[in-house]
Protein backbone atom coordinates (compact mmCIF):
# COMPACT_ATOMS: atom_id res chain seq x y z
CA UNK A 1 0.00 0.00 0.00
CA UNK A 2 1.39 3.34 -1.04
CA UNK A 3 1.77 6.05 1.61
CA UNK A 4 0.39 9.39 0.37
CA UNK A 5 3.41 11.42 1.45
CA UNK A 6 5.75 9.03 -0.33
CA UNK A 7 3.48 9.20 -3.36
CA UNK A 8 3.65 13.01 -3.32
CA UNK A 9 7.44 13.03 -3.01
CA UNK A 10 7.77 10.61 -5.89
CA UNK A 11 5.58 12.82 -8.08
CA UNK A 12 7.71 15.84 -7.34
CA UNK A 13 10.99 13.94 -7.84
CA UNK A 14 9.81 12.65 -11.19
CA UNK A 15 8.90 16.15 -12.30
CA UNK A 16 12.34 17.42 -11.29
CA UNK A 17 14.07 14.70 -13.28
CA UNK A 18 11.88 15.54 -16.24
CA UNK A 19 13.08 19.13 -16.17
CA UNK A 20 9.93 20.52 -14.58
CA UNK A 21 11.73 23.04 -12.39
CA UNK A 22 12.75 26.39 -13.80
CA UNK A 23 16.39 26.89 -14.64
CA UNK A 24 18.28 29.17 -12.22
CA UNK A 25 18.08 32.82 -13.09
CA UNK A 26 14.98 32.54 -15.27
CA UNK A 27 11.87 34.41 -14.18
CA UNK A 28 8.83 32.19 -13.68
CA UNK A 29 5.91 32.90 -15.96
CA UNK A 30 2.60 33.37 -14.22
CA UNK A 31 0.36 30.30 -14.35
CA UNK A 32 -3.42 30.68 -14.31
CA UNK A 33 -5.60 27.74 -13.33
CA UNK A 34 -9.37 27.60 -13.72
CA UNK A 35 -11.14 25.93 -10.77
CA UNK A 36 -14.86 25.11 -10.79
CA UNK A 37 -17.43 23.58 -8.47
CA UNK A 38 -21.19 23.59 -7.92
CA UNK A 39 -21.36 24.33 -4.20
CA UNK A 40 -23.80 27.11 -3.30
CA UNK A 41 -22.35 30.42 -2.11
CA UNK A 42 -21.37 30.21 1.54
CA UNK A 43 -21.13 26.41 1.62
CA UNK A 44 -18.75 25.39 4.39
CA UNK A 45 -16.51 23.39 2.03
CA UNK A 46 -16.01 26.59 0.03
CA UNK A 47 -15.60 28.92 3.00
CA UNK A 48 -13.38 26.64 5.06
CA UNK A 49 -11.66 24.71 2.29
CA UNK A 50 -11.68 26.03 -1.27
CA UNK A 51 -11.00 29.66 -0.40
CA UNK A 52 -8.25 28.62 2.00
CA UNK A 53 -6.74 26.25 -0.59
CA UNK A 54 -6.68 28.96 -3.28
CA UNK A 55 -4.93 31.38 -0.93
CA UNK A 56 -2.38 28.77 0.14
CA UNK A 57 -1.53 27.78 -3.44
CA UNK A 58 -0.83 31.39 -4.29
CA UNK A 59 1.22 31.83 -1.10
CA UNK A 60 3.24 28.65 -1.60
CA UNK A 61 4.11 29.64 -5.17
CA UNK A 62 4.90 33.27 -4.26
CA UNK A 63 2.18 34.45 -6.62
CA UNK A 64 3.43 32.36 -9.55
CA UNK A 65 0.03 30.64 -9.67
CA UNK A 66 -3.20 32.60 -9.97
CA UNK A 67 -6.48 30.77 -9.64
CA UNK A 68 -9.70 31.79 -11.37
CA UNK A 69 -12.53 30.37 -9.30
CA UNK A 70 -15.94 29.62 -10.78
CA UNK A 71 -18.22 28.47 -7.97
CA UNK A 72 -21.94 27.81 -7.62
CA UNK A 73 -22.23 26.00 -10.96
CA UNK A 74 -21.04 28.93 -13.08
CA UNK A 75 -19.28 26.55 -15.47
CA UNK A 76 -21.95 23.86 -15.49
CA UNK A 77 -24.13 21.58 -13.42
CA UNK A 78 -22.83 18.92 -11.06
CA UNK A 79 -23.14 16.17 -13.66
CA UNK A 80 -21.11 18.32 -16.09
CA UNK A 81 -18.07 18.61 -13.84
CA UNK A 82 -16.55 15.27 -14.91
CA UNK A 83 -16.67 16.15 -18.60
CA UNK A 84 -15.57 19.77 -18.10
CA UNK A 85 -12.47 18.65 -16.19
CA UNK A 86 -11.73 15.68 -18.43
CA UNK A 87 -11.84 17.89 -21.54
CA UNK A 88 -9.78 20.64 -19.94
CA UNK A 89 -12.52 23.27 -20.09
CA UNK A 90 -11.59 23.76 -16.45
CA UNK A 91 -8.19 22.78 -15.10
CA UNK A 92 -9.42 21.67 -11.68
CA UNK A 93 -12.96 20.55 -10.99
CA UNK A 94 -15.17 19.15 -8.28
CA UNK A 95 -15.83 15.59 -9.48
CA UNK A 96 -17.67 13.44 -6.90
CA UNK A 97 -17.50 9.68 -7.59
CA UNK A 98 -21.03 9.23 -6.24
CA UNK A 99 -22.41 10.96 -9.34
CA UNK A 100 -20.00 9.21 -11.73
CA UNK A 101 -20.33 5.59 -10.65
CA UNK A 102 -20.18 4.26 -14.20
CA UNK A 103 -16.71 5.69 -14.82
CA UNK A 104 -15.39 5.72 -11.24
CA UNK A 105 -16.75 2.41 -9.89
CA UNK A 106 -14.09 1.46 -7.33
CA UNK A 107 -14.33 4.85 -5.64
CA UNK A 108 -17.78 3.74 -4.48
CA UNK A 109 -16.05 1.92 -1.62
CA UNK A 110 -16.06 5.19 0.33
CA UNK A 111 -19.86 5.20 0.48
CA UNK A 112 -20.32 1.78 2.07
CA UNK A 113 -22.18 2.08 5.38
CA UNK A 114 -20.70 2.08 8.87
CA UNK A 115 -16.99 2.24 7.97
CA UNK A 116 -16.16 5.43 9.91
CA UNK A 117 -17.91 8.38 11.51
CA UNK A 118 -15.24 11.11 11.55
CA UNK A 119 -14.29 13.23 8.53
CA UNK A 120 -10.82 13.66 10.05
CA UNK A 121 -10.39 9.90 9.77
CA UNK A 122 -12.22 9.17 6.55
CA UNK A 123 -10.90 12.02 4.39
CA UNK A 124 -7.15 11.24 4.56
CA UNK A 125 -7.81 7.48 4.75
CA UNK A 126 -9.64 7.54 1.43
CA UNK A 127 -7.04 9.71 -0.28
CA UNK A 128 -4.42 7.20 0.89
CA UNK A 129 -6.59 4.43 -0.53
CA UNK A 130 -6.99 6.15 -3.88
CA UNK A 131 -3.27 6.74 -4.26
CA UNK A 132 -2.26 3.34 -2.89
CA UNK A 133 -4.55 1.10 -4.92
CA UNK A 134 -5.80 0.55 -8.47
CA UNK A 135 -8.42 3.25 -7.84
CA UNK A 136 -5.87 5.87 -8.93
CA UNK A 137 -5.36 4.32 -12.36
CA UNK A 138 -8.83 2.90 -12.96
CA UNK A 139 -11.05 5.72 -11.73
CA UNK A 140 -8.86 8.78 -12.18
CA UNK A 141 -5.87 8.52 -14.54
CA UNK A 142 -7.76 6.42 -17.08
CA UNK A 143 -10.34 9.22 -17.11
CA UNK A 144 -7.69 11.88 -17.71
CA UNK A 145 -7.69 13.37 -14.23
CA UNK A 146 -5.71 13.19 -10.99
CA UNK A 147 -6.99 13.71 -7.41
CA UNK A 148 -5.55 16.65 -5.48
CA UNK A 149 -7.60 16.71 -2.29
CA UNK A 150 -11.05 15.89 -1.06
CA UNK A 151 -13.29 15.91 1.96
CA UNK A 152 -15.70 13.45 3.49
CA UNK A 153 -18.92 15.05 4.57
CA UNK A 154 -20.56 14.26 7.86
CA UNK A 155 -22.64 11.10 7.83
CA UNK A 156 -26.03 11.15 6.09
CA UNK A 157 -29.28 11.18 8.03
CA UNK A 158 -32.99 11.59 7.32
CA UNK A 159 -34.72 14.96 6.85
CA UNK A 160 -38.41 15.12 5.94
CA UNK A 161 -41.27 17.52 5.33
CA UNK A 162 -44.98 17.09 5.93
CA UNK A 163 -44.96 13.40 6.90
CA UNK A 164 -45.24 11.66 10.25
CA UNK A 165 -41.82 10.28 11.09
CA UNK A 166 -40.79 8.93 14.47
CA UNK A 167 -37.94 6.64 13.46
CA UNK A 168 -36.38 4.56 10.71
CA UNK A 169 -39.44 2.30 10.49
CA UNK A 170 -41.40 5.25 9.11
CA UNK A 171 -39.14 5.47 6.04
CA UNK A 172 -41.28 2.79 4.41
CA UNK A 173 -43.02 4.20 1.36
CA UNK A 174 -41.30 7.60 1.51
CA UNK A 175 -39.81 9.10 -1.63
CA UNK A 176 -36.35 10.26 -0.58
CA UNK A 177 -33.61 12.18 -2.33
CA UNK A 178 -30.56 9.94 -2.47
CA UNK A 179 -27.47 9.32 -4.54
CA UNK A 180 -27.63 6.32 -6.85
CA UNK A 181 -25.68 3.24 -5.80
CA UNK A 182 -24.96 2.19 -2.24
CA UNK A 183 -27.15 4.81 -0.59
CA UNK A 184 -30.11 4.05 -2.83
CA UNK A 185 -29.75 0.34 -2.11
CA UNK A 186 -29.70 0.98 1.66
CA UNK A 187 -32.85 3.12 1.43
CA UNK A 188 -34.61 0.34 -0.48
CA UNK A 189 -33.61 -2.18 2.20
CA UNK A 190 -35.25 0.12 4.76
CA UNK A 191 -38.46 0.34 2.70
CA UNK A 192 -38.00 3.78 1.14
CA UNK A 193 -38.13 4.79 -2.52
CA UNK A 194 -34.83 6.42 -3.59
CA UNK A 195 -34.86 9.29 -6.06
CA UNK A 196 -31.47 10.27 -7.52
CA UNK A 197 -31.33 14.07 -7.29
CA UNK A 198 -28.20 16.29 -7.32
CA UNK A 199 -27.70 18.14 -4.05
CA UNK A 200 -28.26 21.65 -5.53
CA UNK A 201 -31.79 20.53 -6.58
CA UNK A 202 -32.76 19.14 -3.16
CA UNK A 203 -34.36 22.32 -1.75
CA UNK A 204 -36.76 22.70 -4.67
CA UNK A 205 -37.57 18.99 -4.78
CA UNK A 206 -38.60 18.98 -1.11
CA UNK A 207 -40.44 22.29 -1.32
CA UNK A 208 -42.55 21.17 -4.29
CA UNK A 209 -43.23 17.70 -2.90
CA UNK A 210 -41.30 15.86 -5.59
CA UNK A 211 -39.81 13.96 -2.67
CA UNK A 212 -40.91 13.58 0.95
CA UNK A 213 -37.43 14.33 2.21
CA UNK A 214 -33.77 13.59 1.79
CA UNK A 215 -30.98 11.41 3.02
CA UNK A 216 -28.50 14.24 3.46
CA UNK A 217 -25.28 15.15 5.26
CA UNK A 218 -26.29 16.87 8.45
CA UNK A 219 -23.63 19.58 8.22
CA UNK A 220 -24.84 20.59 4.74
CA UNK A 221 -28.46 21.19 5.76
CA UNK A 222 -27.85 24.88 6.34
CA UNK A 223 -25.55 25.35 3.34
CA UNK A 224 -28.39 24.19 1.09
CA UNK A 225 -31.04 25.98 3.19
CA UNK A 226 -32.94 22.76 3.83
CA UNK A 227 -33.76 24.05 7.30
CA UNK A 228 -36.32 26.24 5.52
CA UNK A 229 -38.21 23.30 4.00
CA UNK A 230 -37.90 20.35 6.42
CA UNK A 231 -39.68 19.87 9.72
CA UNK A 232 -38.20 16.60 11.03
CA UNK A 233 -34.66 15.25 11.41
CA UNK A 234 -33.81 11.66 12.31
CA UNK A 235 -30.20 11.51 13.47
CA UNK A 236 -27.99 8.51 14.17
CA UNK A 237 -28.81 6.77 10.91
CA UNK A 238 -25.27 7.43 9.63
CA UNK A 239 -25.83 5.24 6.59
CA UNK A 240 -23.66 7.01 4.03
CA UNK A 241 -20.78 9.42 3.62
CA UNK A 242 -20.18 11.56 0.54
CA UNK A 243 -16.73 12.31 -0.86
CA UNK A 244 -16.17 15.72 -2.41
CA UNK A 245 -12.85 15.70 -4.31
CA UNK A 246 -11.10 18.30 -6.42
CA UNK A 247 -9.24 16.78 -9.35
CA UNK A 248 -6.91 18.22 -11.94
CA UNK A 249 -6.87 17.48 -15.64
CA UNK A 250 -3.94 15.09 -16.12
CA UNK A 251 -2.58 16.81 -19.23
CA UNK A 252 -2.54 20.12 -17.36
CA UNK A 253 -0.83 18.45 -14.38
CA UNK A 254 1.97 17.18 -16.59
CA UNK A 255 2.68 20.70 -17.89
CA UNK A 256 3.14 22.16 -14.41
CA UNK A 257 6.57 22.71 -12.82
CA UNK A 258 7.38 20.51 -9.83
CA UNK A 259 7.16 23.37 -7.36
CA UNK A 260 3.62 24.11 -8.51
CA UNK A 261 2.62 20.45 -8.30
CA UNK A 262 4.00 20.33 -4.78
CA UNK A 263 2.13 23.50 -3.80
CA UNK A 264 -1.17 22.15 -5.12
CA UNK A 265 -0.77 18.94 -3.12
CA UNK A 266 0.51 20.58 0.08
CA UNK A 267 -2.26 23.19 0.06
CA UNK A 268 -4.74 20.39 -0.55
CA UNK A 269 -3.56 18.42 2.46
CA UNK A 270 -3.87 21.52 4.63
CA UNK A 271 -7.34 22.34 3.28
CA UNK A 272 -8.49 18.76 3.79
CA UNK A 273 -7.40 18.74 7.44
CA UNK A 274 -9.01 22.12 8.04
CA UNK A 275 -12.41 21.22 6.56
CA UNK A 276 -12.45 17.79 8.20
CA UNK A 277 -11.91 19.32 11.65
CA UNK A 278 -14.62 21.91 10.96
CA UNK A 279 -17.02 19.17 9.84
CA UNK A 280 -16.47 17.08 12.96
CA UNK A 281 -16.92 20.09 15.26
CA UNK A 282 -20.15 21.13 13.54
CA UNK A 283 -21.65 17.66 13.96
CA UNK A 284 -21.44 18.10 17.71
CA UNK A 285 -23.37 21.39 17.57
CA UNK A 286 -25.94 20.46 14.96
CA UNK A 287 -28.60 18.67 17.01
CA UNK A 288 -29.20 21.69 19.23
CA UNK A 289 -29.13 24.08 16.26
CA UNK A 290 -31.86 22.13 14.49
CA UNK A 291 -34.00 22.00 17.62
CA UNK A 292 -33.55 25.74 18.20
CA UNK A 293 -34.88 26.32 14.68
CA UNK A 294 -38.08 24.45 15.41
CA UNK A 295 -37.19 21.22 13.65
CA UNK A 296 -38.32 18.04 15.40
CA UNK A 297 -35.17 16.05 16.19
CA UNK A 298 -35.24 12.29 16.74
CA UNK A 299 -32.05 10.45 17.66
CA UNK A 300 -31.84 6.70 17.24
CA UNK A 301 -30.98 4.65 20.31
CA UNK A 302 -27.89 2.40 20.21
CA UNK A 303 -30.22 -0.60 19.86
CA UNK A 304 -31.97 0.98 16.87
CA UNK A 305 -28.62 1.78 15.28
CA UNK A 306 -27.46 -1.81 15.66
CA UNK A 307 -30.66 -3.10 14.07
CA UNK A 308 -30.36 -0.64 11.18
CA UNK A 309 -26.75 -1.59 10.48
CA UNK A 310 -27.70 -5.24 10.43
CA UNK A 311 -30.41 -4.53 7.86
CA UNK A 312 -28.10 -2.68 5.48
CA UNK A 313 -24.90 -4.71 6.04
CA UNK A 314 -25.55 -6.64 2.83
CA UNK A 315 -24.80 -3.45 0.86
CA UNK A 316 -21.04 -4.00 1.30
CA UNK A 317 -21.26 -7.66 0.26
CA UNK A 318 -23.26 -6.72 -2.82
CA UNK A 319 -20.78 -3.99 -3.75
CA UNK A 320 -17.78 -6.33 -3.55
CA UNK A 321 -19.60 -8.98 -5.58
CA UNK A 322 -20.58 -6.42 -8.22
CA UNK A 323 -17.03 -5.08 -8.57
CA UNK A 324 -15.53 -8.54 -8.85
CA UNK A 325 -18.14 -9.58 -11.42
CA UNK A 326 -16.71 -6.74 -13.55
CA UNK A 327 -13.16 -7.99 -13.04
CA UNK A 328 -12.36 -5.23 -10.51
CA UNK A 329 -10.70 -5.96 -7.14
CA UNK A 330 -13.53 -4.79 -4.90
CA UNK A 331 -12.57 -6.96 -1.93
CA UNK A 332 -8.94 -5.86 -2.08
CA UNK A 333 -9.89 -2.19 -2.27
CA UNK A 334 -12.33 -2.50 0.65
CA UNK A 335 -9.70 -4.17 2.83
CA UNK A 336 -7.16 -1.47 1.91
CA UNK A 337 -9.64 1.24 2.87
CA UNK A 338 -10.42 -0.47 6.19
CA UNK A 339 -6.69 -0.70 6.94
CA UNK A 340 -6.16 2.98 6.18
CA UNK A 341 -9.12 3.90 8.40
CA UNK A 342 -7.68 1.82 11.25
CA UNK A 343 -4.30 3.52 10.82
CA UNK A 344 -5.93 6.95 11.17
CA UNK A 345 -8.03 6.18 14.25
Describe this structure in words.
Helices cover 43% and strands 16% of the residues. The protein has helices at 4-17, 44-60, 81-86, 119-132, 135-140, 182-189, 202-207, 250-255, 258-292, 302-312, 314-325, 330-344; strands at residues 31-36, 65-70, 92-94, 145-152, 156-160, 175-178, 193-196, 213-217, 232-235, 243-249, 296-299. α1 (4-17) packs antiparallel against α9 and α4 crosses α12 (330-344). The chain is globular and about 60 Å long. By secondary structure, it is an alpha/beta fold. It has two domains: 4-153 and 243-281, Bacterial extracellular solute-binding protein, family 7 (D-Maltodextrin-Binding Protein, domain 2); 156-240 and 286-314, D-Maltodextrin-Binding Protein, domain 2 (3-Layer(aba) Sandwich). It starts with a helix and ends with a helix. Strands 7-6-8-5-9-11 form a six-stranded mixed beta sheet, sandwiched between helices. The protein has a five-stranded mixed beta sheet with strand order 2-1-3-10-4. Mean pLDDT is 91; it is low at 4-27.
Structure keywords:
D-Maltodextrin-Binding Protein, domain 2; 345 residues; 16% strand; 6-stranded mixed beta sheet; alpha/beta; globular; 2 domains; 5-stranded mixed beta sheet; 12 helices
Structural class: alpha/beta
Average residue pLDDT: 91
| CATH first level of the largest domain | Alpha Beta
Number of strands: 11
Largest beta-sheet characterization: 6 strands, mixed
CATH topology of the largest domain: D-Maltodextrin-Binding Protein, domain 2
Spatial separation of the terminal alpha carbons: 17 Å
